[in-house]
Design goal:
Radius of gyration: 67 Å
Largest sheet: 2 strands, parallel
Number of strands: 2
Shape: rod-shaped
Number of helices: 6
Structural class: mainly alpha
Strand content: under 5%
Amino acid sequence: MTTIETLASVHGRTLLRDIYRELRFERQVSALVTLTTLWRICTTERELIRTTKRDVVVLHPLGIWAGTALWMQEVVNRFFYSAVNAFVYFGASVLLVAVGLNRTRVIDTPAIVVAGVILEALLLLMLFVVMFFTPPEDVEASSSTSPQSGAAEELLRELGEIGRDYAAMAVQLETIAGTLNDLVDRQDTMIVQMRDGVEAAISAVAPNPNLMNAMRATTSSLERFTDSIDTLGERLKAVERQEVERLVRTELERILSRHILDRDERSSSSTQTG
């Protein structure tokens, strides 16, 4: 809700013009109803939300005389001056027609001329009243410059808001840039760690040349050792065969020597007995 001291101020006069445009062009209210509504607003109305879309409260209504004068200045003179002037020209044309018809004796009735004169006089009086309540020039100048100043203030305020938004955006961009730098550093660290891990895995899976050379040397040594074992086995077999032959020979010699001894003993005993 907005409060205003009086409608006679510059802001109040601007508000009246806005209300007229709202009633006539937005809500399509007739001219007579618009004039009646605006006259009531100018004279006695306090809460404009009752008749318009604007939630404005007038603290000090102007009353009948001052409100009517303001209504004549800001509504009738501004928006209906052309219509009143047109009616004056219409009355003048009617008067000229009546005078011409009376002079040419087409209609020999002086009352028509008198009625035309009265109508034209009333219309001229209406035009005088409307022109008498012409808005002051200082009010028109202030009302014409106030929208410009308001637009300039609005523009400056929007520029300030845009600058503030840009500053906040710059701060956010700096924060995002710092975060991205940290992310890039972490990514580089992770890449180095992954490279080390991959190299370790490759080293674990792929054969090491030194290890392969050592394994080849070991294999050669094992082959030579196997050959030596085979040779030793053959030699042991030969030694074993010679030992067996020696043992057999020794045993045969013992058996033969015993047999010979037994035969000698038998022969000697037979000799002694004979």
